[in-house]
Design brief:
single chain, alpha/beta, Rossmann fold, Heat Shock Protein 90, 3 domains, five-stranded mixed sheet, 10 helices, binds adenosine-5'-triphosphate, binds magnesium ion
Length: 417
């Protein structure tokens, strides 16, 4: 048997009469058309499984499988293979039935070589056109699905930008509202701290004077009052209370600054970034998400600067930190390690959370993949992150063990000036 080259049109003759097979082969091979023959429908199907065949010349009446059955099976399994029926029956209804069943031509035996050639050449031409047609349709379908993917992707970006824009507006509003009262609370606390030192000094002198007083009744009344009102404990606590309040307002100030940065509307200009500092600022922003169930361990090394857009990188850190916190059910640790590796820096955010099963590791970067549908996760966090890291010529890697936790490692090029 000839193993056909798919580029060359190849013909298979299926006829249980050896002489017919030989005659047809001779006619076609004489015209340079690769041709082979088998003597039953079953053998034809075996041949089709292993070889490319563009056209079959099929006898209608054969022992075993009939030509019509072979035609039907061929159309189901090898739609690229065309069939010309070849038969001694020249009744109109049989010919029409064959054509309606999908045959591309019909040659009546006994045939003239020229009639066979005309039928075969026409059939091969139609087969080629149909094949081209199918290839074009496949290409069109591919183009269409590519377009639809791109459309989906731009829609996703638009939704995310909208979401960020409205988040940004909200953040800017809150930051503005919180900023002023925080300013005067901080300033008043500063004055209060100074005044308190004087009050404490006065109280200590007054207390010594009471203790030294010779007026027993006055001394006893004042001492009882002092004890009842717990003045000594209050005096001891006041300093600590004010120190804590000043620290609290300092924290609010940093969060407000972070929110303002996060919500800035203009397109970001790239700049040199201190990653350790940016991580600290981002931690301030999402502290509320982290503080209840995580201990945050900072393993920061001195780092050279990187070149990029701080708001976007902050968004990357924010997504990773929030994901890490969300992966921890009750109590756990998030360890942030930064270090320089040659002309790159590495930022690893490791959690002791639920981890990610091996088979899901590839999917987590796909847009809309989320296991947090119930809590309103969009599944966009990591896909946006990947895009931003790409814009910064960086890379992201994940290692994870279900039940033990995950580590997301970012690599960013050092700013070379
Ligand atoms: N640190 C992590 N530990 C365990 N699973 C994680 C971690 N980070 C991401 N995943 C998994 O990857 C999925 C996709 O994360 P991604 O940040 O893209 O979306 P999300 O967190 O589900 O939703 P959104 O970020 O919009 O709130 C998560 O739903 C979660 O299953
Ligand atoms: Mg997320």
């Amino acid at each position: 048997m000839v193993k056909c080259n798919p580029q060359t049109p190849a013909v298979l003759v299926v006829d249980d009469e050896v002489l017919v097979c030989q005659l047809l082969q001779r006619i076609l091979q004489g015209e340079g058309i690769p041709c082979t023959s088998v003597n039953s429908g079953e053998k034809a199907l075996e041949y089709l499984k292993k070889n490319t065949c563009h056209l079959m010349l099929v006898d209608i009446r054969m022992d075993g499988m009939s030509g019509f059955d072979l035609l039907q099976k061929t159309q189901e399994q090898w739609p690229d293979t065309q069939v010309v029926m070849c038969s001694g029956v020249d009744q109109r209804d049989v010919i029409l039935t064959a054509l309606e069943a999908g045959a591309i031509g019909y040659v009546v035996k006994p045939f003239q070589p020229i009639d066979v050639l005309i039928s075969v050449k026409n059939a091969l031409r139609i087969a080629r056109l149909e094949q081209e047609n199918r290839a074009q349709r496949r290409q069109l379908e591919q183009d269409l699905s590519q377009c639809s993917l791109e459309l989906h992707e731009s829609y996703r970006r638009m939704v995310q930008q909208e979401r960020l824009a409205s988040l940004g507006q909200l953040a800017a509003g809150v930051a503005h509202e919180v900023n002023n009262p925080t300013g005067y609370i901080a300033s008043n606390l500063g004055s209060l701290s100074k005044y308190l030192k004087r009050i404490i000094a006065f109280h200590e002198t007054a207390a010594s004077a009471i203790d030294a007083s010779s007026d027993n009744q006055l001394r006893s009344e004042l001492r009882t009052l002092r004890a009842r009102l717990k003045i000594d404990q209050i005096m001891a606590d006041l300093d600590e209370l004010i120190k804590d309040s000043i620290e609290g307002t300092e924290r609010i100030r940093r969060i407000v600054m972070g929110l303002k940065k996060f919500s800035r509307k203009e397109a970001e200009e790239p700049q040199a970034i201190d990653v350790n500092k940016l991580l600290e600022e981002t931690l301030n922003l999402c502290w509320n998400e982290l503080k209840y169930k995580t201990e945050v361990v900072r393993r920061f090394s001195a780092l050279p600067q990187v070149w990029g857009m701080p708001q976007k990188l902050s968004q990357v850190f924010l997504n990773l930190l929030v994901n890490a916190a969300q992966s921890i059910e009750k109590q756990g640790t998030i360890t942030i390690t930064t270090q320089q590796r040659g002309d790159h820096i590495q930022i690893a955010i490791a959690d002791t959370g639920c981890g990610i099963a091996q088979e899901h590791l590839d999917k987590i970067f796909e847009p809309f993949y989320t296991t947090k549908l119930e809590t309103g996760g969009t599944g966009l966090g990591l896909s946006i992150l990947q895009e931003i890291i790409g814009q910064h010529q960086g890379q992201i890697q994940v290692q994870s063990k279900p039940g033990s936790g995950s580590t997301f490692t970012l690599t960013l090029p050092v700013f070379s000036g």
